[in-house]
Structure formats: C-alpha cells, structure tokens
Specification:
Blueprint (H helix, E strand, L loop, with lengths): L3 E8 L5 E10 L5 E10 L4 E7 L3 E10 L4 E10 L8 E8 L3
Antiparallel strand pairs: 1-2, 2-3, 3-4, 4-5, 5-6, 6-7
C-alpha cells in the first residue's frame, strides 16, 4: 500500500501579500515535489509567482476590467534546469461573468 503526504502553508504578512508553500511526497521516499510562491494584489491587478523543486518558475499578471466582465492574464514559465530551452509566454483572455 502506497501512502501519500501533502503539507501546505499559507501566510498573509499583509493585506496585499500572500505567501504559500506546498510539499507533496510519498512516504516511501520515492518522489517528492516542493513549491513556494507569492501573490501580491494591486488596485490594477495581481501578480502570482512560484517556483517548483524541479527548477521551473511561473509568473502570472492578472487584470480585470469592466467589473470583472473581462479578465486578462499574462503568463510566463522558465525552466532553470534546461537553460537551452526557450521560455514560455502566453496570454489568456476571459470574456463574460464567471
């Protein structure tokens, strides 16, 4: 029987800043994943960033307009374990109330 473990922590040092960490793994020690990140809110939008134990860093800038009728996200990803691999960038547009 294989048992999994998941430990998470979310802290809020200020009203605009949220810090989070997560550790996932198997009790047999076969594999584990760790990530740590932050979310900071501004009047104009929010920025979320985190990095995993596999060397990948993610960043998202989120902006909502027209009272959340339109949501725009700019996404990025960098793989530090594969420096020759190109960075990924993206754009997500959500229209309508969700």
């Amino acid at each position: 029987m294989q048992r999994d473990i998941n430990i998470s922590y979310v802290g809020r040092p200020s009203q605009r800043l949220q810090l989070f960490t997560e550790l996932k793994g198997k009790l047999d020690g076969a594999s584990s994943d760790f990530l740590a990140g932050y979310k900071i809110k501004f009047l104009e939008g929010a920025i979320t960033g985190y990095m995993t134990s596999k060397g990948k860093a993610y960043g998202t800038y989120t902006k909502s307009v027209e009272q959340n009728a339109i949501k725009l996200e700019f996404l990025s990803m960098v793989d530090f374990k594969k420096p020759t691999k190109n960075c990924s960038f993206g754009l997500n547009l959500t229209i309508g109330m969700m």
